[in-house]
Request: fold
Amino acid sequence: MPVMDVGGRQIGVSEAGWLDDIKEWDEDIAKAIAQREQVDLTPEHWDVIRESRAYFDEYGTVAEQRVFMKLMKEKFGADRASQQYLYQLFPHGLLKQGNKIAGLPRPKGCS
Reply:
């Protein structure tokens, strides 16, 4: 089983880098995953990560992209809710890369 060292802690991950146990997630783990994904986290990234986690905590599932974009529009405005904006932050996509950094379960169909 692959592991990722985060501040001396051994964190189990899948071959593709998804957390084995989403309860282990914290911001240090997010930073480590982002580094592996070659994403430099900015306050805008953290807004997306926090919204993704809040949706998961409330509904027990990862938000579909269309639903998530609507949530972002309501909270942050249209300029921060477009597909282009989200791909600017997460070049491999919100569902694949953003949710991985947020420590959420891998959505069906994501490698």
User: Anything to note?
Assistant: Strands lie at 3-6, 9-12. The domain at 43-101 is CATH 1.10.10.370 (Arc Repressor Mutant, subunit A). The CA atoms of residues 4 and 44 lie 25 Å apart. The helical segments are 27-36, 43-59, 65-76, 83-89, 94-101.
